[in-house]
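[Meeting: bench + compute handoff]

Bench side (C.D.) handed over the final construct sequence. Compute side (W.E.) agreed to return the predicted structure before the next meeting so the bench team could plan truncations. Sequence as handed over:
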Amino acid sequence: MPKLPSRRNKATSAASTDSTSAANSVNEDISQQVDPGSATITVTAVEVPELTEEEQSDRLHLERRVERAFFEAGKALAELRDRRLYRSTHKTFDEYCRSRFGYTHRHVNYLIAASNVVDNIVMGTNGSQNEISDEMGTNGSQILPTSERQVRPMTKLEPHKQQEVWLTAVELAGGKVPTGRIVKDVVQRIMELTQVPNTYQLGEVCQILVKDNLELRGKAGCWGIVSATNEFSCTVRMWDGEYAVGLQHLKSYDYLPAECEQMRVICDRINRVYSSGLEESVQKFLEMLGKLNRAYLTGLEEKVLTVLESEIRD
């Protein structure tokens, strides 16, 4: 008796037929497709809702909080320091700032100094500090700093010079908040215009004043011999090499010519031993000699230096 075809075979056959038909249809579409480069893509525009009055107000308030952050931090730190509100838990203000905020001594000083600069800028334009909270940043009638780095170059200037620098920097920035680089350039330009003539002489012994010059870090209090003079700086030979130092970072010891010559000889001796690459402990000793505030070596210092000189000769 012949077998009847099964339903499964019919279904498979039907599916195969449909698949072949679909494939043929796709091939037809591909063969008729135009060049992709000339195809038109339709993009549906998405409407962005406008901010409500309440949202506009919230945005303005939050922006001002961001802009005032460094200023408010500096004022708060100054009050904590001046009123000694840290005394119940810490012996010193530096310890308190490191423990409570993770701030270094340098960072705290930057913030406090920056807040004072903002006060001076506001005082110079408004004549009052009463409106500083409302006008801080770019959203008020006055353009004010929004970060500590923007005002750092101005912290060593007199208040009236700070105001002059800031107004010039805002103008150069096209009426917007200037970058720290713009402010620094303006400060440098003003300092060069008001710079006193270079009166230092070759062979003169000077003390290094680091101030805010990071390139001179570790050289505070060191002495050096002027080996070259420029318009706004001197090349100074120290115990570990030569450095170009701005006039504002130098202070003469006013030694007599004989004392200057004596210090020049000592500097050369120290430098020869240092450049020989002896142990770190020896270098620390030489660094200590490089911070002497007198024009001579003691008897013991002379003996130790002589021993080190004989060591490098051997």
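W.E. noted at the follow-up: Strands lie at 205-208, 223-229, 233-238, 241-246, 250-252. C.D. will use this when planning the next construct.
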